[in-house]
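Bumping my old thread because nobody answered last time. Still need a sequence for this structure:
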């Protein structure tokens, strides 16, 4: 089966133990994994033919958090740690909530639901645009590039 891993080392996918579906009810054990140019190809225990593999098409596979290595580096984050963080501007005003982290090919982008009604905003996930992240406090500071239009009144005082 082709699997798009979100691991630093794509071949490490088999090192985390059994994978689960989104519900956590079905588990999948990786028997073998090899890398291709764009993804990895894995053999899953019990998935023995094309029909069984096809039935899993589109299934999101997960690793339980307790199976992951501890994140001891202050500059490394698991995607799941960033989701739901409150985003604040450098001046202290609440900006919104982190909805997702994407990589469309030109680098990671944080998708933020703005505090005020409006469309989501994409901010580059770089040290310049996101200078502070405090996962324990559930917050991050964003300093979006000038090209990103932010709909707030700069004269308004923080609450």
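Sorry it took so long. Here it is:
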């Amino acid at each position: 089966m082709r699997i798009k891993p979100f691991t630093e080392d794509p071949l490490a996918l088999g090192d985390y133990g059994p994978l689960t579906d989104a519900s956590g009810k079905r588990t999948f054990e990786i028997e073998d994994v090899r890398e291709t140019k764009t993804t990895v190809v894995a053999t899953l225990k019990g998935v023995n033919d094309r029909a069984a593999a096809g039935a899993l098409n589109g299934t999101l596979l997960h690793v339980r958090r307790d199976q992951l290595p501890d994140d001891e580096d202050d500059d490394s984050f698991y995607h799941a740690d960033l989701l739901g963080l409150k985003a604040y501007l450098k001046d202290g005003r609440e900006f919104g909530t982190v909805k997702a982290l994407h990589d469309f090919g030109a680098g990671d982008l944080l998708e933020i639901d703005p505090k005020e009604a409006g469309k989501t905003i994409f901010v580059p996930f770089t040290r310049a645009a996101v200078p502070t992240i405090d996962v324990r406090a559930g917050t991050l500071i964003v300093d979006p590039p000038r090209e990103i239009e932010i709909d707030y009144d700069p004269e308004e005082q923080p609450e």
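The chain has two helices and eleven strands. Let me know if any region looks off to you.
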